[in-house]
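Feature request, filed as a ticket because there's no other form

It would be nice if the structure record came with a short human-readable summary line next to the tokens. Right now we just get the raw output. Example of a typical job, pasted below so the devs can see what we mean:
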Amino acid sequence: MMRQTILESDNKAAAAAAVEAVQLTKRVQSTDSGRGGFKAWFAQSSFFPPLLAFIGLFLLWELGVRLFNINPLVLPTPSSVLVELVSEFTFYLPHTWVTLYEAVIGFLAGTLIAFIGGILMAHSRLLERTLLPIAILANVTPVVAIAPLLMIWFGFGAMPKILISAIITFFPMLVNSITGFRSIDENNYEFMRSLHASKLEIFMKLRLPNSLPYLFSAARTCVSLSVIGAVVGEWSGATEGLGNLVMLAGNYMQMQRMFAAILMLAIMGIFLTNLVRLIERKVLSWHVSEQRND
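Raw output as currently delivered:
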């Protein structure tokens, strides 16, 4: 009887020790998962890491200007640029809308024309050999050289800037379109042909879905190039726009205003690129390139 009592007591003690060990393990795992969860969230965030990088860059810029006593007419401090931008924000906003309009319309026009050209050239090698050299010629011609000519032809309104943006964005999208439309699985292509699928059906169900990663890759590059095209056009002749503002501020040595306009252009480029990236994630959620790595 006594032996049985001792065994029961030992069993109860062992069970209590096991329960306590399980609870301790859960607490440790909960703490580790909380730490790991924050690290994983920070690593996967697309906002905070670049934000910290920009803050660090601005701090180094600020310290460098102050420590080396650099003349503000050569390089102003980022704090003075931010003060200029915030205090005169209503002055910069109309110029920003003008440049944004020229860049976006030029991007859409260049992308649409390149998309149509890519479809035609992907289906015809003869058409590609005929038209691609012309596209290469337009691409290698410096837009700075043709911008004054466009001003003479179309005046000093928005049209020349839109055309320059379209010219800059056209070629990268054209090349990626042709590559994407032709990079299809041969077995899938032969299978659809065996089902007597039309060219339109093959394009909509095989070529177009396969080309989307190529098209969005080109769009991320082209959307920033469109901003450059709008600025180049404004340098050649304009009365409004951030490019015109940069040029005038540089001529009058208004460095805070010049850097504020450049900062607005940078924000515009980042915004447009992230907007394209967001659309890409929504459209290509099924694609392997958008699968998150744990």
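Something like this underneath would help us a lot:
Confidence is low (pLDDT under 50) at residues 1-11.
DSSP finds eleven helices and no strands in the chain.
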